[in-house]
Automatic annotation (TrEMBL):
<feature type="domain" description="ABC transporter">
    <location>
        <begin position="5"/>
        <end position="230"/>
    </location>
</feature>
<dbReference type="Pfam" id="PF00005">
    <property type="entry name" value="ABC_tran"/>
</dbReference>
<protein>
    <submittedName>
        <fullName>ABC-2 type transport system ATP-binding protein</fullName>
    </submittedName>
</protein>
<dbReference type="InterPro" id="IPR017871">
    <property type="entry name" value="ABC_transporter-like_CS"/>
</dbReference>
<keyword id="KW-0813">Transport</keyword>
<dbReference type="InterPro" id="IPR003439">
    <property type="entry name" value="ABC_transporter-like_ATP-bd"/>
</dbReference>
<dbReference type="InterPro" id="IPR003593">
    <property type="entry name" value="AAA+_ATPase"/>
</dbReference>
<dbReference type="GO" id="GO:0005524">
    <property type="term" value="F:ATP binding"/>
</dbReference>
<keyword id="KW-0547">Nucleotide-binding</keyword>
<dbReference type="GO" id="GO:0016887">
    <property type="term" value="F:ATP hydrolysis activity"/>
</dbReference>
<dbReference type="InterPro" id="IPR051782">
    <property type="entry name" value="ABC_Transporter_VariousFunc"/>
</dbReference>
<keyword id="KW-0067">ATP-binding</keyword>
<dbReference type="InterPro" id="IPR027417">
    <property type="entry name" value="P-loop_NTPase"/>
</dbReference>
Amino acid sequence: MENVVELTNVTKEFKDFSVKNIDLQVKRGFVHGFIGANGAGKSTTIKMMMNLLQPDAGEVKVFGMDYKTHEKAIKERIGFVYDGNVFYEGLHLKDIKRIVAPAYKHWDNALFSQYVEQFELPLNKAIKNFSKGMQMKASLAIALSHHAELIIMDEPTAGLDPIFRRELLGLLQEIMLDGSRTIFFSTHITTDLNRIADYIAFINRGKLVFNNSIHDITENYALVKGRTELLDRDTEKAFVHINRLSTGFEALTENVTAVENTFGDSVVIEQATLEDIMFHMKGGMQHV
């Protein structure tokens, strides 16, 4: 089975927000980044992947199964890493292990001990006294200790200092080496994904804009800078979004060849970062 997660035409309506017609596939054995501004729909989508929310329409499948008939079997194979502590704050890590371990038939005490030592986590210290980084490591140790095949991380690096963020990303790269796991990593800190992601899904205002490999994104998206007088009704068709500035224009394209054919050497074309793409897409899904 190539896809670990498949969302097909998934919609969830709220009073003042909706996630609409999401078609998303997460491939086995890769790190899949999920980007979007705060409030774009990332957490809502993840909650539907976890069956914490049920879609109003569409279908969610994990490991080729649906939650209606296979919820326990699916959750046995998922590890969820939170962006903060979800356990009773007075508990020690050894108490949390004692509570969590019986819930998983593949729990591995030796593996848990290995990660506790590797991550330098104290077993006899209340979780409320853990730093945010230590809480993240504790969640990751628990997820890995029941041999989770899919690790879902919702904004795991938010609020972490740059040094620990780099350390966490290094840990994620290590656990991917044997090819048996898949990581789905939601974040609005796009620089984190430049280091580890194989695929990127981008959600904007509740709609999935793209779900492509890093290679394809690098090849297709670019920033274009030039003089404002070069823009007209026809030339603007080469762009996804345009910012007009006092010194000229900066625009995002998803078709570098079209820009080259339209403008030749009269514009500057630069590689677009994930942050550039998010910035321009958030500015509008149309020419401005």
